[in-house]
Amino acid sequence: MSVKVGDIVTLVVEKVAGYACWGSVDCQTGFVHCVEWSLEKPVPDSKTPKVGDHLRVKVFRLVSEPQADLPADVTFGGTVTGDFVASAVLLEKENESNKG
To answer: Taking CA atoms, which of 31, 51, 66, 91 is between 20 and 30 Å from 75?
Structure first.
């Protein structure tokens, strides 16, 4: 299965830094920046991902650039090859708008 923009997936978190987390879905690697973890600011500890967590996210961008062209923070210092960028905030916003 290939992840597409707009897909809602469950990312299994494999790496976490203060500014982002990375995880896998069907052998593809996703990147979620810390501002995309939660609408609440600062992000509460309960919504800060930990290795092994299952994080529901919405894919909003596929990575088409070669890894060398991406910033080092996006690639966890060059050690992660990402396939997509996703957001938990997009799901929270959708849930909020569906309630109203």
So the answer is: 91
For residue 20, report the phi and psi dihedrals to the nearest 5 degrees.
Answer: -170, 170
Q: pLDDT tens digits, the chain, 100 residues: what are they?
A: 589 999 999 999 999 998 999 999 999 999 999 999 999 989 999 999 999 999 999 999 998 877 777 777 777 888 888 899 999 999 888 887 887 6
Query: Which pLDDT score is estimated for 100?
Result: 64
Q: What CA–CA distance (Å, rounded) separates 57 from 30?
A: 10
- Identify whether the C-beta of residue 86 lies closer than 8 Å to the C-beta of residue 9: yes
Which residue matches tokens 């997509």? 84
1 to 44, 51, 62, 94: CA distances (angstroms): 33, 23, 14, 24
b/e sequence 25-48, b meaning 16+ C-beta within 10 Å: beebbbbbebebbbbeeebeeeee
Q: How far apart are CA 91 and CA 96, in angstroms?
A: 9
